[in-house]
Each structure stands twice: as structure tokens, then as C-alpha cells.
Amino acid sequence: MNYRVKANRDIVGKAREFFTDLLDKKLLDGIIVPLELPSGKSYFPTLVKDKKLIERANPFVPVFQVSVATQVSKMTRLSPFEGKIGVVMRPCDLRNYVELIKFNQIDPTNLVIFGVDCYGVFDPNRFKDMAVSGEKPADKYWDMVEKDDESELRRACRSCTTPVPNRYADVVLGYFGSSGDLLLMAQTEKGEEILSGFGFEEAGSLDEREKIVSSIKERRASFWEKVKEETRKETSGVDNLLAFLGNCIDCHNCKDQCPICFCKECFWESPTFEFQSSDYMDWANKRGGVRLPTDTLFFHLGRLAHMSSSCTGCGLCEDACPREIELQRLFKMVGENVQKAFDYEPGRDIEERPPLTTFKEEELLELGE
């Protein structure tokens, strides 16, 4: 069932009221939602128990600091929550969440997922600079949504064709095509149980919403094709790929922030890459010189081999890079190719096993025997 909450364009305010009521009515024992830092310079996901803190919450805030799916994994990997916990997620991270469930990294027991419409986000540093200068990025975001102007959003967002949550959100908090109201849409029995006791007005036709979402998807798919072609040209061949990744300092930030890189014992952090001084001298003698730090290309190729089949293109890898290497477009391009080869789409179906966890005697026959 779909519902409409009159908001007079104060969509965030109505969402706060909704979450406060959920805690008041004991429908939730807590909720993980983006909360403004005391400094006012940014937002981070926070497990909230005290309803008074909801005054600082913004489920639609246009900044994506860390993967909520990763944080939920850390919280539930050993044991599920005992109480019912709400989790606010944007669409790309909801797909990450589904992938992590498949890899047994999340126990979804007692979780209620609140998916949100997402027009996109600002680069985290850009968001902070705007906040410090008094520009109010959250307000600017709504102006951009109304004007359908995504020029200042991250490239990852401008090429994202999933601006609305998939079917694994129990409740969707939407604003596309809402005429300034808050849309609340139950997609599961769990979601309907949450919404049924509020007496909200039925939403009526969602044709305008579907039209807007379709337009966004079409525009972004076209933009991504252009970016993908540019990326293919820039990274074709070893020399070009080395140049593309040339500023890598081997910090592993991209790996650490990637929701799909969850291994507790990581090959890239192992003693495999601890060498004797004589090894470096041997390499230098053979090549005339050796670039330091070493194995940066090997690192990125290894990551691509491990996680590309489940890459959602969320862009956290690129956001985390201190050298501003445009990793997202490379990883998304390779990920699409791998996913197409296996007829696999991350986040599409919770029962669909990831390629890395399956074995088939006959597959990839086009590569030859």
C-alpha cells in the first residue's frame, strides 16, 4: 500500500516526525539514520535510541560518508539484533546490503529497511566546504531536485540508474513525483505492519513518479555510456591502465571503504608483500629502477578480480582516494562486463548466488576450452 503525508515541501521534517512516532509507538527499538554532527559540517549514520536526537536526522541528506550496509555487517555478523531496528539506506547501499546477506556477512533478522529516494549526493569534501561557508548543502539539494539539475553531484550519482530503492526495502520514503509531500510505500508484509496503524492518506496515482524516475534513468544511462567509452579508451592496455592508476599511493582506502571487500584475512595485508631489501635491489638492477610503492597495479587488478561481479558502482572507493583517482568509473565499467558475462546483477535477487560462490562445469564457453 502507498501513502501520502502532506508536507508542504518540508519532506525532511515529516520524515523526522515519522521516525519519532516509530520510536514512540515502540514499533522500533532503534533506528540507524544519518545524523548531523555537532559541528554541523556533515552527517554520519547513527544508531538512535533517544527520539530527541531525531531532530538532527536527515534520511535524504546529500552526502554518503560510509556504507550503512558495511556498518550493519559489523553489527550483526556475530549475532542479530534482539530488538527491532530500522535501517535507512539509499538505493546503491541497499544493493550492497543484499550482496552482503548473500555472502553471510549480514544477519537481517529483526531489521526493518527504510529505503529512500536518492537524486544523488555531493562529494564529501564539497559538502563540508559548503557547510563551512554557510551555503547549506541540504537546502541546495532540494533546489537541485526541483530544477532537475544534477550538475554538481558526484559523477557516480550522475551515472546511477537506480535512484529509487529496490524491492528489498520494507518501506520506501519517496519524493519523486510527490508534489512536495512525503510518500511512504510498503513493499513487504513487514513494511505494511509498520505503516498500517498510522491512518495515512492513500497516495493515489504514482504515474508522475514513474515518469520522473524513468526520465532520470534514461538520461543517466546515456551519460554513463559516454563515460564508459571514455574510460575504455583511457584504460585500454597495460600502459594506459598504469597511467590511469599512476598516482596510487597504495593506501588501500578504496578497499577499506568498499562494501564488497569484507575479508577478515586480506591477501593485500598479508606478509606476501613484505620483501627483503635485496629483492628491491634485484628489481632495480633488472629494470633500471623500481617504482615505489610497488605492486599498485597488481592491487587494483586483484580487487577487480575479487569484487567486480558484485560492484554496485556506489563510488565509495573514489571518495576515499586521497589522490582523487577516478576509480568508480573503472570499477563500474569492469563490473558491468563481468556481470554481463555471468548474467548477474548485484542486489537484484537475494536468492541469486554470486558468481564467486558458484561452480558450473559449463560456463564462459566463448573463452574456449
TrEMBL record:
Q: Which UniProt keywords apply?
A: Iron, Iron-sulfur, Metal-binding
Q: Give residue ranges for domain 4Fe-4S ferredoxin-type.
A: 302-330
Q: Which Gene3D superfamilies match?
A: Alpha-helical ferredoxin
* Source species, domain of life: Bacteria
Annotated signal peptide:
none
Cross-referenced SUPFAM superfamilies: alpha-helical ferredoxin
Task: Spell out the protein name for this chain.
Answer: Formate dehydrogenase
